[in-house]
Write a structure and sequence with these properties.
Two copies of one chain form a homodimer. Chain A is an alpha+beta fold and 324 residues long. Chain A has ten helices and eleven strands. Chain A has two domains: 137 residues, 60s Ribosomal Protein L30, Chain: A, CATH 3.30.1330; 146 residues, Phosphoribosyl-aminoimidazole Synthetase, Chain A, domain 2, CATH 3.90.650. The longest helix of chain A has 18 residues. Chain A is globular and about 60 Å long. Chains A, B: InterPro entries: PurM-like_C_dom, PurM-like_C_sf, PurM-like_N, PurM-like_N_sf, ThiL-like.
């Protein structure tokens, strides 16, 4: 397929009938904003060998590209509306690969909403580079920010923490882990917490997603809110796979607390918030409190400070990830 | 500089005080749409060795990235408002390079308007890949599309055609050209025709920018409008450098007509349009007419059809450019 065929056969169907996409046949897309809504804009890029393993299934890579961006929208309380895709493809990418990649994106458009409205396909002599721009909408003034947490607010997280980091530790450093298939699935298919994000609008004082690692991302909220936080390692929610892994290899606890790629939400709730109502949407755990000061303190089960070598995730190849 | 320093020192100043950028310190940016305006979205990517020469000055690469996207906004009649940048950087990119690249973007923000509101910086083992998402605004319903040209409409182009293609032919195929500095400047610093695009709102029936090549891009308007067009090669406006080059090497005429990277506008005007009013904004030339049928016919000075080997530009490396 040449680029026009690729657009017509693989990408134009991803417009899902959105009229503003103009069938991907114009220089640009048109977005008529809905009155009473703000737009939320995010753009994350992923690179072969850095953010995904080159042997990951192409549909999973498409899904991951969607979900790292959807997770940002979720963290801000926004609903997905439109996407723009830039794909820089090496010669080794053939039609079958690209077809499966597009199918991965399409399945997530159906699952999470929104439409592809534009983008660009170019060639590179290096590894594949994909960037996705995600545009969501949120009732005017309703975006959840990193700034805004108050002293005494509860530190809450969704779902479970650490599975993706344990998978990466296994792949890169042969760490011995349990239930590898479960961990791989969490690494490949992050769950953007869109319903929870919507439920947190007007309720959470601040929030972000856990992409760099729990301690680092909580640190971002602290920095933007001008606060510190204290969390209990024992309260951090774990999947059965992570629990089993840590039971055998307690030394992997820092990997769980500081590893990235979870794409859960971490957020600040006032102490009087109705947790049960949120639990109906998505599992939520209280792991600590915001406090005056700065930085994140992590306490072990005895209440002593845990010393962590690093607070956040750096991707395996060279320069770190400036993902926001 | 690590990624956080890069964002703080180089990219955060490019937010130019736009409050919705949240200082590049959040997961996403906030855009409150102006009532009565539609948003116009475009995203083009450029790759080292494909869309720019690796020895191009970094400030020029930043400017080119801005301008290929601004040109799409111009073609649609939109004014720039916000940008999101994804940069995949090879290890060879050092702080000095990145500082100059950011300065090139900053100079164009000052010149053309808008603000950087988000993005992502990642590493790659391959050549640099940059993608820019440009968001413009246009009075509701006012976007100029590729569809909409009518039979009898004038085919018009802005500025002059072919300089960038002659420069590329010189660099890649040692084509003998005149006034190389002029050609290089046109290649490196496209002029997005934003003022002309704004003047064309409500006047042009259709339009797009000349990125793939004059004949190919006019062909896009024809295809989307369900028409054909006939143009006279002798009427295509040329710079002094291109005129002098063609006087010496007439065989380069097809390069001028089909080469890309001009970033002028090609558009459909009703025959009764006031060209003089447009001329006050930007030089405009009438080069032909839209007609029933399909495809673009090019006539030589004697009125005979010119046979062109190709109608559009393919970038030098491998897979073509799916740029829209």
């Amino acid at each position: 397929m040449d680029e026009f065929e690729t657009i017509a056969r693989l990408f134009a169907p991803l417009t899902r009938g959105e009229p503003g996409a103009l069938g991907l046949g114009d220089d640009a897309a048109l977005l008529a904003p809905r009155p009473g809504f703000d737009l939320v804009l995010t753009k994350d890029a992923i690179v072969g060998g850095v953010h995904f393993f080159p042997d990951d299934p192409p549909a999973a890579i498409g899904a991951k590209l969607m979900r790292v961006n959807l997770s940002d929208l979720a963290a801000k309380g926004a609903s997905p509306r439109a996407f723009l895709l830039a794909a820089a493809l090496p010669p080794a990418v053939d039609d079958a690969w690209l077809t499966a990649f597009a199918a991965g994106i399409g399945a997530d458009l159906d699952r999470f909403g929104g439409a592809l409205v534009g983008g660009d396909t170019v060639s590179t002599s290096g590894p594949a580079v994909f960037s996705l721009t995600a545009i969501g909408e949120v009732p005017a003034g309703g975006m959840i920010r990193r700034a805004g947490a108050l002293p005494g607010d509860l530190v809450c997280v969704s779902g479970t923490i650490g599975d993706a980091a344990l998978y990466v530790a296994h792949r890169l450093h042969r760490a011995e882990v349990a239930q590898i298939d479960q961990l791989e699935d969490r690494y490949r298919y992050p769950r953007p917490r869109l319903a929870l994000g919507a439920a947190l609008r007007g309720l959470a004082h601040a929030g972000c997603d856990v992409s760099d690692g729990l301690v680092a991302d909580l640190g971002h909220i602290c920095a933007q809110s001008g606060l510190g936080a204290v969390i209990e390692a024992g309260a951090v929610p774990l999947s059965p796979a992570a629990r089993e892994t840590l039971a055998r290899r307690p030394a992997l606890l820092p990997t769980v607390l500081t590893g990235g790629d979870d794409y859960e939400l971490v957020f600040a709730l006032p102490p009087e918030a109705d947790l049960a109502a949120l639990e109906a949407v998505c599992p939520v755990s209280v792991i600590g409190r915001f406090e005056q000061g700065q930085g994140v303190r992590v306490l072990d089960r005895a209440g002593s400070p845990l010393k962590l070598d690093r607070t956040g995730w750096r991707h395996p190849v060279g320069r770190g990830d400036g993902s926001r």
